[in-house]
Amino acid sequence: MLDIKFLRENPEIVKENIKKKFQDEKLVLVDEAIELDEKLRQEKNKGDELRAQRNKTSKEIGALMGQKKIDEAEAAKAKVKEINEALVQIEEDTKKFEAELKERMLVIPQIIDESVPVGKDDSENVEVEKYGEPVVPEYEVPYHVEIMESFDGIDLDAARDTSGAGFYYLRGDIARLHSSILSYARDFMIDRGYTYYIPPFMIRSEVVTGVMSFAEMENMMYKIEGEDLYLIGTSEHSMIGKFINTITDEEKMPLRMTSYSPCFRKEVGAHGIEERGVYRIHQFEKQEMVIICKPEDSMNFYNELWKNTVDFFRSLEIPVRTLECCSGDLADLKVKSVDVEAWSPRQKKYFEVGSCSNLGDAQARRLGIKLRGEEGTYLAHTLNNTVVAPPRMLIAFLENLLQEDGSVKIPEPLRMYMGGKDKIVPVK
What we know:
Elements: H1 4-9, H2 11-20, H3 27-66, H4 70-105, E1 126-131, H5 144-150, E2 154-155, H6 156-162, E3 169-170, H7 172-191, E4 195-197, E5 202-203, H8 205-211, H9 214-220, E6 222-223, E7 230-231, H10 235-241, E8 246-249, E9 255-264, E10 283-293, H11 298-315, E11 320-324, E12 336-344, E13 349-358, H12 362-367, E14 369-373, E15 376-379, E16 381-388, H13 392-401, E17 408-409, H14 412-415, E18 423-424
Parallel strand pairs: 4-9, 8-14
Antiparallel strand pairs: 1-11, 2-3, 5-7, 6-7, 9-10, 10-16, 11-12, 12-13, 13-16, 14-15, 17-18
Helix pairs in contact: 2-3, 3-4, 8-10
């Protein structure tokens, strides 16, 4: 959410930003917000003036009564009553204008960084750099579910019976591999100086609307019926929410956190052949990174975050690339974002395995996350990035480390979590 003062003083900048995001239908919101802001300030000024008059008149009543000027005192009382009635209406109008203004401000997008490439959608995202050599082996790489089934490691049919489409049972070596990757990711981030958290897996609506746009909320979040609680789509939601309405001394910055959680997503609109199997699912687990920092440091930490993911995947011998998200692909709260994509030997292309985002002060403004410095308090900046999100990451892992005999190589960093195994062998 933008600062209303910034919008008031820079409406053309805000409108140009909306155009860059190809959301021209929102242009009218800028003028509406400015008009509502003016009405709101007028009402507040009228209220202040009337309260001052009321205070002055109330003092006069006592003096008039002391002078036995009863008629004048009664007239003053009537005036106070009239002012009170006017103030009631002003307070109602003020609340109405505040609500209408907030409604518009919440959907006006954050100002994107000037380095963000302009494009309509994800088809216009820009490749930044490749890490590792993408290899297509001479032998066939089966579909990831077939690889898992060769280890007797997945049961989609039973999951459909218990839960419906978009769920799965993992078992045996595949389940152990899944858990081992998460354990390695946890320790990988702890070794890089991040504090490990396991947060709540449900959050209140106040936090939901603080950490994401309404469009994201509608497409992602599952609501708990009868309660003001939502299942989280990522632990970023809980971790940022942890700091709602807080003021932290700036010398404690940055706060580097890494958090584990299950994630629950509707995945509205998911479709296509690669949505089969465990590519897009309603429930998965993830290790996340979250940073809260001073505004001037956020771009440096943004680069630190995506590099962590690249280093993690490369430590497991998986080729990846970074893809700069264009203006039209950025969610409304994001200032800048880069996807990390892993190589798929079977598909002969890259696919997303993580997303790194700098949200500037958008979440901090919505949630009241402030820092305290020598010159007073100010809004923090928030950033997040995926370390790893199996089972999607398992697709990249199994395809890239599959051997010709059907076994899967276990890279050295992962072996201590897999009981010392240097490979897992299919049972079918």
